[in-house]
């Protein structure tokens, strides 16, 4: 009896031990496969990351520590078994902080970087950025597919012999128009004030027409805001985009060096077109249509005059539907108004009626990795990006959870389940998980954004494309220039918004001041022009 | 006696180095006290000077300071090609010479006045009030100044309330430099006065008693006793200020400047910041600019020291 009992206990223990061993083996096997192969091709990696990893991330999306406890963030941290060491970067110090981090070797494991070509080549040359494995495109196909659409990725690979930077695609599955023109250069104006002063609502206005509207508002004060009235609420960067660039396409840093009709490189800020644009900006300021101290405003302060205090008739908005949605939310929260009845969006033309903007390459900023990142962490981040780039991940990142925040409609269209007045940003604030594909892409189809805003955004993109094709006045993206790097080119990089603002505020004759300014810059500009023109030969 | 006995006796054939070692051993207690300061100086002031070699190199992070290739004076060629650099040099000198004239006397005057106060508690309270702003960062002070002087700020609201028209204080090139001086005086005069108050406290009280017996008034005592006694301290502080003429308060100017005041606010430190962090990173270029600044500062310091000695005062180096 005793012997039998002892034997049966032994058997039970042996079976239990065997099962445990099998279980452990199965678990470790699954983890091992994941680490080796990255993720499943569908962008939906099998959960099974046995080791918890703390990953440091540098991002410009502001978060609070409490955010990490919400269901949304927890979904991703649980799914990928990670803990974020989150490093928030102020928008205004983004470029500077990344330079410091990269140069000092203190870059977080992964960071979003405002890609600067000269810096990229320099950093790669110095080994300051992680080189992705040669087979990364096969292992993370969704990321590779989106990467291929940026254009920059392949060109940079040719130049430096490998992938060190993942440019972030603006559009992936939902490109709104062809050719694609930069989203900047869309303004919002108070439609109720326009009606009150008899100003016609259109899809496109010349800069003079907008000045005329501002003059009417200043004269009649339809909103009864008195001394607080700011007819046009632009900061120095908005003024550069919506007044100077609208009249002189090569006035900005992105397009300042360009090839003329003969294929010779020129410097746009020295052109008569730029002078004319500056005269218009100065007139706008001197007439009191801009705020007397618009040059002291930091990022976002100008728009607040429109959305928070309601003191302004015109502000710079940008072309994304999500911007319009944010404006609507802010106006509702701060002014208690329905912005649909008060806001009209439009694009800005030059005074000659031509449309000027930048041809858009399909990337904005880039994802980079610390050169010392462990293979394990790198693979986990890539799995994460693979998932969030695929349809399932994109839907969760941009819309929340199926059945709770959204559902499929009868025609398989996305239907938001959020109650009226609630936005996903309010429900799950500060979602930074869309690490790779920019939100611009999904915003075209995102039902969390009103259909009217999405349609209007696409409409304006199409209008831009149509005018760009007709007028041929947009700035071509010049890969030769963009991929060229030299000490002289780096030295001739100016903060044009500051330079122009200073010029129009300077006492004396603007034309004389501008000529003097152009001459003062030529010692830095001419060497770049010479280099570029010789490069061409 | 004991330590003297421990010093090996001087021999006729000893070299200068041996004599030096003997001297050090003899005063070893004093040299032990100097040691921490000396170590600090070597670690944090002299060793980092090796980094200045970057000014003559094409710095590559991975190759480090020593491994990066030498490029001679190439970086200086780029520095002097930029007209903004020379503008920044002259602007820095102009602002700082102005500071020296306008601002330098304030802590001295404040110290002299505080010294005349007889109510000890009142004197201490005033001293605390004057010293407090020094502990505020320039970001805070600038924020306050901008809010007070902005077009929609406190001062302009008052002006408008009284029927006047608003003034662009923050965007005025003419007002920028005075604003720099005023805010700096407000922030640092109290702190600067501490050094002079310390010097005043070291004056032998017999001199005041003798002056009183001779019938000197309080004002005469101030000019005939206090001021001459703190003159060596004033001279040293002046020489040190001259030595810093090429460095101006970066955080103050950076936080108060804007696009409208760019032509009067881009001093050398702001220029170095701009070329280092706001355009493509080039540490070699920035080092070249910094080295140039340090050399000019050194020359100015030596000139001021020489001038002080020629005028019969004490210099830094005796």
TrEMBL record, chain A:
InterPro entries noted in UniProt: SBP
Keyword field: Signal
Keyword Signal: yes
Classification via Pfam families: SBP_bac_1
N-terminal signal peptide: 1-25
Name the record gives this protein: Extracellular solute-binding protein
Organism: Paenibacillus albidus
From TrEMBL, chain B:
Chain ranges of the ABC transmembrane type-1 domain: 89-304
Predominant location: membrane
Family the UniProt entry places it in: Belongs to the binding-protein-dependent transport system permease family.
One Pfam family matching this protein: BPD_transp_1
Localization: Cell membrane
Listed transmembrane segments: 29-49, 93-114, 135-159, 179-199, 227-246, 283-304
Source species: Paenibacillus albidus
BP terms from Gene Ontology: transmembrane transport
Entry-linked InterPro entries: MetI-like (IPR000515), MetI-like_sf (IPR035906), UgpAE/MalFG_permease (IPR050809)
Bilayer topology: Multi-pass membrane protein
Protein name as it appears in the record: Protein lplB
Keywords (A to Z) from UniProt: Cell membrane, Membrane, Transmembrane, Transmembrane helix, Transport
Highest taxon of the lineage: Bacteria
Gene Ontology cellular component list: plasma membrane
Gene3D superfamilies assigned: MetI-like
